[in-house]
Amino acid sequence: MAEKQAHLNGAYYGPSVPPAANYHRPSRSSGCGCGCCLLKLLLKIIISLVVIIGLAVLIFWLIFRPNEVKFHVTDARLNEFSLDNQTLRYDLAVNITVRNPNRRIGIHYDRIEARAYYEDQRLQSVPLTSFYQGHKNTSFLNAVFRGEQFVRLGSDEAADYNEERISGIYSIDVKLYLRIRFKVGRVRTSRFRPRIDCDLKVPLNTVNGTLAAAPFTTKRCDWDY
């Protein structure tokens, strides 16, 4: 007869239960390998670069406080603007002022090309002289467009032209295509290629030199990057 388990306080609790076996289950690796580590490193580098560039831009702005260079068409003379059998003859001269309001930033205008448009069709391109503009300086540009150009006007554009012919005021766009560099102290930036848009309402001069309509008023131009 098997030996009975010892009684505790006179009570019997049954046969002894062997302790549960402790099975160690190997854990899976929480890492994602070399590729994951490389991705984390790359993200850290990108974030660091963004922070550094942001701080550099902020410091530059706090030191130099750059202001936008202003372009104005101060005068425009239209001596001829006639359409005959889809050939447009034109004679337009514009005076443009360029104001650099910055105290510490100069501008190299390495390339300036002036273009005249009518109803989104280019009439002529004119290269202008490159120059350097110093601090808090106003420079002057003059562009002359003269010649004839084939234009294809639809019914709406032709109607617009007839209305302008009656009023004596024509909607002509002059655009400046620039290649510029900024100079800060002895440092020069890389080249930028902005465009300056001048949407003009130009009165036609009559044969004796008087205006057929109200005189031209100064027009501020817009930057287009």
Topology:
Elements: H1 33-64, E1 70-84, E2 87-100, E3 105-118, E4 121-128, E5 131-133, E6 137-150, H2 155-167, E7 169-184, E8 187-188, E9 195-203, E10 219-220, E11 222-224
Antiparallel strand pairs: 1-2, 1-10, 2-6, 3-4, 3-5, 3-7, 7-8, 7-9, 9-11
What does this molecule look like?
It is a single chain. By secondary structure, the chain is of the alpha+beta class. It has 2 domains: 39-68; 70-224, Immunoglobulin-like. It is built from 2 helices and 11 strands. Strands 3, 4, 5, 7, 8, 9 and 11 form a 7-stranded antiparallel beta sheet that branches. Strands 6-2-1-10 form a 4-stranded antiparallel beta sheet, with no helix packed on it. It is elongated, with a radius of gyration of 38 Å. The model has no long low-confidence stretch (mean pLDDT 85).
Short description:
This protein folds into two domains: 39-68; 70-224, Immunoglobulin-like (Sandwich). It is 20% helix and 44% strand.
Please tell me how large the radius of gyration is.
38 Å
CATH architecture annotation of the largest domain: Sandwich
Quantity of strands, as a count: 11
Could you give a short account of the major beta sheet?
7 strands, antiparallel
Q: What is the count of DSSP helices, taking H or I runs of 4+ residues?
A: 2
Count of structural domains:
2
The fraction of residues in strands falls at: 35-45%
CATH fold call of the largest domain: Immunoglobulin-like
The low-confidence parts are none
Backbone structural class: alpha+beta
In helices, the fraction of residues equals 10-25%
Average pLDDT works out at 85
**Beginning-to-end CA distance, first to last residue:** 102 Å
Q: Briefly, what CATH class of the largest domain?
A: Mainly Beta
Q: Give the topology string: H per helix, E per strand.
A: HEEEEEEHEEEEE
3D shape = elongated
Instruction: Look at the structure and name the CATH superfamily of the largest domain.
Output: Immunoglobulins
Membrane topology: Single-pass membrane protein
Main location: membrane
Domain Late embryogenesis abundant protein LEA-2 subgroup: 96-188
Organism: Hibiscus syriacus
